[in-house]
Specification:
Helices cover 19% and strands 36% of the residues. It is α+β, with helices and mostly antiparallel strands.
C-alpha cells in the first residue's frame, strides 16, 4: 500500500533526477565570441556551421555540460581559411573570445600558354635598335648586338625571323632549329645599308646646254659682220 511517505519520497526523487537529466543533454549555457578581421566570414565549430561574422564578430552558444568542441574554423572566399584549437572553455554564463585573422589568398599561378617548358632564341645583329619579328610577331629590339627571345617548347614553332631598321635592308631568314627545354638557339642577322642613288644628268639637259652654246656662237659671229 502506497503511503503519503512513499509518495513524497517519489516526488523528491523525481525533483533530483530531472535537473541531472537536463544537465546531461547540455543544460547550462555559455558563449564563445569569435572575433575576426573580416565581415561575412563563415564560422564552424567541429565542422558544424554556426553562422557568419557581423561587425567582425559572432557569438556562438555553448552548453557547459555538453561534449566539448576542440577546434573551430573561419572561412571566406578570397581568403585562406583560419583553423584554431580551443583550449579554454567558458563556465556557465561566461564568454570566451577566440580570435581569427584571415589572410588574403595568394593568386593561383597561371599556366604558360599551350604548354610548359621554356627555351630561348638569341638573335645577334650588327645594328643596335633594330626590330626583331618572329613570324611577324614583334619580339623587341637589338641592344648591345643581341636580343634574347623566350619561347615555349610545346607551343607552335616559329618558322621565320626578320630584323629591320630604318636605312637598312630587312634581313629575313628561315628558322630551322628549335630549342629544347632550357636550351638556347642562336640566330644571326647581318643588315646592309640601303644604297643611296646618285642623280644622273639627263640627255635633255646636255642637249639644252649644247643648243645654248651653238646659239651663242652664231650670235657672236653675226655681230662681227
Amino acid at each position: 500500500m502506497v503511503t503519503i511517505k512513499h509518495f513524497l519520497a517519489l516526488i523528491i526523487a523525481i525533483a533530483v533526477i530531472l535537473p541531472a537529466a537536463s544537465a546531461m543533454v547540455g543544460g547550462d549555457k555559455a558563449w564563445f565570441l569569435i572575433s575576426s578581421n573580416v565581415d561575412g566570414a563563415d564560422v564552424y565549430f567541429g565542422g558544424e556551421y554556426k553562422g557568419q561574422t557581423v561587425d567582425q564578430k559572432l557569438y556562438v552558444e555553448y552548453f557547459t555540460t555538453g561534449t566539448p568542441v576542440t577546434n573551430f574554423m573561419v572561412t571566406k572566399e578570397g581568403y585562406t581559411p583560419y583553423t584554431g584549437q580551443i583550449t579554454h572553455y567558458p563556465a556557465m554564463g561566461e564568454t570566451v573570445t577566440l580570435y581569427a585573422t584571415l589572410q588574403p589568398a595568394q593568386p593561383t599561378p597561371t599556366s604558360p600558354p599551350i604548354g610548359g617548358s621554356i627555351g630561348w632564341y638569341t638573335v645577334y645583329a650588327n645594328v643596335d635598335g633594330a626590330s626583331v619579328y618572329f613570324d611577324n610577331d614583334y619580339k623587341g629590339t637589338i641592344a648591345n648586338g643581341e636580343l634574347t627571345v623566350q619561347v615555349y617548347t610545346t607551343a607552335t614553332p616559329y618558322q621565320t625571323y626578320r630584323v629591320s631598321m630604318s636605312g637598312y635592308s630587312d634581313f629575313t631568314s628561315q628558322i630551322t632549329d628549335w630549342p629544347a627545354a632550357g636550351e638556347t638557339v642562336k640566330l644571326h642577322a647581318n643588315l646592309q645599308p640601303v644604297a643611296t642613288t646618285q642623280p644622273q644628268p639627263s640627255p635633255v639637259s646636255i642637249l639644252a646646254v649644247l643648243a645654248g652654246a651653238v646659239g651663242a656662237a652664231v650670235l657672236i659671229a653675226y655681230r662681227r659682220r
